[in-house]
Amino acid sequence: MVEKATQIPVKVETGARLSQNLALLHAGSTVSIEISTPAGQRAKFRTIFIGYLPKQYLLVQFPDSNKLGRFSQYIKQGAAITIRGLIEGHEGAVLAFVTSVKQTLQIPSRIMVLDFPHTVTLQHLRSSIRIDTQINAKVKIDKNYWQSTITNLSISGGQLNIVNGDKLILTENKDIDIVVENNDGSGNIKLNAVICNIKKQINGLAFGVQFSDDSKSQVIDLLHLAITESES
What we know:
Blueprint: E1 10-13, H1 16-22, E2 30-36, E3 42-53, E4 57-61, H2 65-68, E5 80-87, E6 93-105, E7 111-115, E8 119-124, E9 131-141, E10 144-153, E11 157-163, E12 175-180, E13 189-201, E14 204-211, H3 216-228
Antiparallel strand pairs: 1-8, 2-3, 2-5, 3-4, 4-7, 5-6, 6-7, 6-8, 9-10, 9-12, 10-11, 11-14, 12-13, 13-14
């Protein structure tokens, strides 16, 4: 979930400007699709954005059938789909829009043909915009690694929780390394950060971190993972 801060997301109307902004989402980009059932259940799946024909339709790859499970039955003509993707740039931005299924294809591969959206929301990821996450990570503190969870994330920093970390001696301005395993085969995401604040919790520690300037591209990768991670 992307929290609203002082900056208001820009909604782009259908037309030349909408097509121009959709073009920022490159063919082959990883995106998430969110599906809702008639009973109100929601699930999010990672897939690939193939491309679009202006004012007519968009093409998106079907997510992995094994991950879709029972939600595959709800991908049918007229079904509402929410698409989100990360646009890489100076600070990155989240592009999101709501569409509906126009048709499904089996050849040459399983593809969703989607209606061209009426509006697109473009949310720039400033340092004040935080995304709530549940990303498992390993944190190297001194010479030891600890299992942790990244609970929120921004372009400049985030918050991590360590269960049973009460024996840790942490101090502000302490350098740490963060390693996140990426399941798409592209390798682990490694970040360097410094601890900014520390809070004791009932079951461990929560601490805020600021990422180093050298980790900028890796932060973009992690934001991409956070936005497109499956919640099925």
